[in-house]
C-alpha cells in the first residue's frame, strides 16, 4: 500500500496518537475511512461509465460493419439477379433474331420469284 510497510505504518499511528490525542483519533479514522470509501465509489462510477461508453461504441461499430456487409450482400445479390435475367434474355433475343433472319430469308426468295 503506497510503499508503506508495517514499521512505517506503526510510526505514523504513534505520531497521530500523540498529535491528535486518543479522544479524537477514532473520529478522525472514521472520517478518513468514509473519505476513502467515497473516493473508491466515485472511482468505480467513473470506471463503470467509461466501460459503458466503450461498450456502446463497440456495439455501434459492430452494427455499422454488419449494415455495410448486408448492403454489400444485397448489392451482390441484385447484380447476380440482373446477370441471370440478362443471361435468360440473351437466348430469347438470339432465337428471336434467328427467327427474324429466317423470315427475312424466306421473304427474299419469294421476291426473286415474282
UniProtKB/TrEMBL annotation:
<keyword id="KW-0812">Transmembrane</keyword>
<dbReference type="InterPro" id="IPR018448">
    <property type="entry name" value="TatB"/>
</dbReference>
<protein>
    <recommendedName>
        <fullName>Sec-independent protein translocase protein TatA</fullName>
    </recommendedName>
</protein>
<keyword id="KW-1133">Transmembrane helix</keyword>
<dbReference type="GO" id="GO:0008320">
    <property type="term" value="F:protein transmembrane transporter activity"/>
</dbReference>
<feature type="compositionally biased region" description="Acidic residues">
    <location>
        <begin position="105"/>
        <end position="114"/>
    </location>
</feature>
<dbReference type="Pfam" id="PF02416">
    <property type="entry name" value="TatA_B_E"/>
</dbReference>
<comment type="similarity">
    <text>Belongs to the TatA/E family.</text>
</comment>
<comment type="function">
    <text>Part of the twin-arginine translocation (Tat) system that transports large folded proteins containing a characteristic twin-arginine motif in their signal peptide across membranes. TatA could form the protein-conducting channel of the Tat system.</text>
</comment>
<comment type="function">
    <text>Part of the twin-arginine translocation (Tat) system that transports large folded proteins containing a characteristic twin-arginine motif in their signal peptide across the thylakoid membrane. Involved in delta pH-dependent protein transport required for chloroplast development, especially thylakoid membrane formation. TATC and TATB mediate precursor recognition, whereas TATA facilitates translocation.</text>
</comment>
<keyword id="KW-0813">Transport</keyword>
<dbReference type="GO" id="GO:0033281">
    <property type="term" value="C:TAT protein transport complex"/>
</dbReference>
<keyword id="KW-0811">Translocation</keyword>
<feature type="compositionally biased region" description="Low complexity">
    <location>
        <begin position="85"/>
        <end position="104"/>
    </location>
</feature>
<feature type="compositionally biased region" description="Basic and acidic residues">
    <location>
        <begin position="65"/>
        <end position="82"/>
    </location>
</feature>
<dbReference type="InterPro" id="IPR006312">
    <property type="entry name" value="TatA/E"/>
</dbReference>
<dbReference type="GO" id="GO:0006886">
    <property type="term" value="P:intracellular protein transport"/>
</dbReference>
<keyword id="KW-0653">Protein transport</keyword>
<keyword id="KW-1003">Cell membrane</keyword>
<dbReference type="InterPro" id="IPR003369">
    <property type="entry name" value="TatA/B/E"/>
</dbReference>
<comment type="subunit">
    <text>Forms a complex with TatC.</text>
</comment>
<keyword id="KW-0472">Membrane</keyword>
<dbReference type="GO" id="GO:0043953">
    <property type="term" value="P:protein transport by the Tat complex"/>
</dbReference>
<feature type="region of interest" description="Disordered">
    <location>
        <begin position="65"/>
        <end position="114"/>
    </location>
</feature>
Amino acid at each position: 500500500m503506497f510503499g508503506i510497510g508495517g514499521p512505517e505504518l506503526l510510526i505514523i499511528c504513534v505520531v497521530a496518537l500523540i498529535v491528535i490525542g486518543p479522544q479524537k483519533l477514532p473520529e478522525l479514522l472514521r472520517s478518513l475511512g468514509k473519505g476513502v470509501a467515497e473516493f473508491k465509489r466515485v472511482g468505480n462510477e467513473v470506471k463503470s461509465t467509461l466501460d459503458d461508453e466503450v461498450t456502446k461504441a463497440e456495439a455501434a461499430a459492430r452494427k455499422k460493419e454488419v449494415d455495410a456487409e448486408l448492403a454489400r450482400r444485397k448489392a451482390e445479390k441484385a447484380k447476380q439477379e440482373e446477370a441471370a435475367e440478362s443471361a435468360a434474355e440473351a437466348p430469347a433475343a438470339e432465337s428471336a433474331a434467328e427467327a427474324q433472319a429466317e423470315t427475312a430469308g424466306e421473304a427474299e426468295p419469294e421476291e426473286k420469284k415474282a
